[in-house]
Amino acid sequence: MLKPDTLRKALMDAVPALRTNPAMLRLWVDKGRNIATLSHSLSFEKQFSLNVAVSGFSGDIDTIFVPVMLWLRDNQPDILTVEAGQQACFSWTLVTNSDSTQDLALTLQLTERTQVKEVDGALYAETLPEPLPPALVTRPKELYVHGELLSSWSS
What we know:
single chain; alpha+beta; five-stranded antiparallel sheet; 5 helices; 7 strands; 26% helix; elongated; Phage_tail_completion_R; p2 phage tail completion protein R (GpR)
């Protein structure tokens, strides 16, 4: 699977608190299922919930949300563009702890395609990335929240 690792990297790159304390960030997958058709290939789509937990966070939650939205634009754009995705595919909860830190939990409904090819009697499986976004999509390198520069990154 590609998406859990790429989202972890995006958050670690964009959120200074997570770079300083990576143990604050946990990701796990559940509710997974494979969807296939009885076609000539064994290719299939993985559908799953990607859960993201940030524990003991003391910043503005937009510092987490904005990098996730940026990641979704490239890695699961239907969440941002299809009404069903907009309504049900990105949910979150927030708990304020006694020390005024927050525990944030995100749930993203994601898919990944696996292409399976048969060549000379052997099967080759490959997880496919999302198609590239249109050329007009920008790649911001800084995050400002309430006018204050909170993070910058190079990738």
